[in-house]
Design brief:
three-stranded antiparallel beta sheet, alpha+beta, 2 helices, globular
Length: 66
Amino acid sequence: MGRKYIDCQEMVAPGGAKCNERITADTEKELLELAGRHAINVHGHSNIASYREKLLGQIKEVAAPK
């Protein structure tokens, strides 16, 4: 399995704010932890547990170089 990422630009932040952050990690667990911290610290989310399902649906695989 390759690296995974969540593109914050594809998410809807509170207040409709746009964000250009792309968060990458080697594992889904690590990615969810990093994305959760980003959601709290940058976008003001207070309950990551309820947001986790939405984050899970946004995980993508980084394309392997050709």
